[in-house]
Write a structure and sequence with these properties.
This protein has 4 helices and 5 strands. The chain has 150 residues and is an alpha/beta fold.
Length: 150
């Protein structure tokens, strides 16, 4: 794992599972995060074979923020754009569902806190940096990002 070093960006993702994810029970969130972690860390072809989950933080539909990969290390969330980039995943599919108010408020607070800690971070959706076409973080979350950047 590579040290993250100086941060200059926050990239927002959605987990994007085809059926979405709207559960708010802690047990369901933990199960969902474990599925993502397994996919990221299991060896191919079952998974990606990464050293750790690719995101630094997750925000669940109930508005809880989960620390995932240590902020000390570069993430694995935007191919060719992970250096100096903090990865945040919002659990859900925001092409299918609206962003719950509690989740959006928690994402806003997380971005504010990271801006306060690191200063001058560019906030973008995964689709703005991805080398390949993606709808991530989903149309409904993407529509909210401009209001979160301030």
């Amino acid at each position: 794992m590579v040290p993250l070093g100086r941060c200059n960006a926050i990239t927002v993702h959605h987990s994007g599972f085809p059926d979405g994810f709207t559960a708010t029970a802690v047990e369901d969130v933990i199960t969902n995060l474990q599925m993502i972690a397994s996919f990221h860390t299991d060896v191919p072809p079952k998974g990606r074979g990464w050293a750790d989950i690719g995101y630094h933080f997750a925000v669940d539909p109930a508005g809880r923020v989960w620390e995932l990969r240590s902020i000390q290390f570069q993430g694995a969330h935007v191919k060719n754009h992970n250096a100096a980039n903090i990865g945040v995943v919002c659990l859900g599919n925001f092409d299918l569902h609206p962003v719950p108010d509690a989740q959006l408020a928690a994402l806003r607070q997380l971005i504010h806190d990271l801006q306060k800690q690191y200063g001058g971070l560019r906030v973008c959706g995964h689709c703005e940096l991805a080398d390949d076409a993606t709808s991530c973080p989903g149309a409904n979350l993407r529509a909210c990002l401009d209001n979160l950047k301030a």
